[in-house]
Design a protein that fits this description.
Elements: H1 4-33, H2 37-63, H3 83-110, H4 117-144, H5 148-158, H6 171-177
Helix pairs in contact: 1-2, 1-3, 2-5, 3-4
The chain binds hydroxy diiron-OXO moiety.
């Protein structure tokens, strides 16, 4: 049975992950509106991952006899002043989520909920990778500045990110399925 304090914090984390899904889909919409479909694609892939992260917590709580409670999502930012600002927010958001995962690890240790350690360790590693990726793109955007060719080249590169097969956010996949 999952520890109650940890269960409450994990329910909160489902909300954080679904808000991450929402914010990245907002960023995808921002990029689509500016014909930067590669960056939009990258954001859709990221949103897909966030949904699966939310579901990992959902299933972990359920598998351990806890009650899943889906909390209200907050109204998040829906517009940005520049491409740079989007990537600054992406990096800051990943750092925020890393803090939340660290909080969960602290609670699990304080409450001696050792069963949750492997999945929380997975999230810790995942956050390290996500921070590194978002940070790298942010640095590249800073280097590119206002150079339009550089932006288009980076857009193409980010558009090569692969969707997991069958993703409901992948337009190719959902049009084939419906
Ligand atoms: Fe859920 O991994 Fe990023 O935020």
């Amino acid at each position: 049975m999952i520890n109650e304090r940890l269960r409450n914090a994990m329910n909160e984390q489902i909300k954080n992950e679904l808000e991450s899904f929402y914010i990245y889909m907002s960023m995808a919409a921002y990029f689509h509106a500016r014909n930067l479909d590669g960056m939009a694609h990258w954001m859709r892939c990221q949103a897909h991952e966030e949904m699966t992260h939310g579901m990992k917590f959902f299933d972990h709580i359920h598998d351990r006899g806890g009650k899943v409670v889906l909390l209200n999502l907050n109204q998040l930012k829906t517009d940005w002043a520049s491409i740079l600002e989007v990537w600054q927010d992406t990096y800051a958001h990943e750092q925020f989520i890393t803090g939340k995962i660290n909080d969960l690890i602290t609670i699990a240790r304080e409450e001696k909920d050792y069963t949750s350690e492997p999945m929380l360790a997975w999230f810790s590693k995942e956050q390290m990778e996500e921070e590194a990726t978002a940070g790298k793109v942010l640095e590249q955007i800073k280097m590119i500045g206002d150079n339009q060719t550089g932006i288009i080249m980076l857009d193409r590169e980010l558009g090569a990110r692969a969707f997991p097969p069958g993703s409901p956010i992948d337009p190719v996949s959902y049009s084939a399925a419906t």
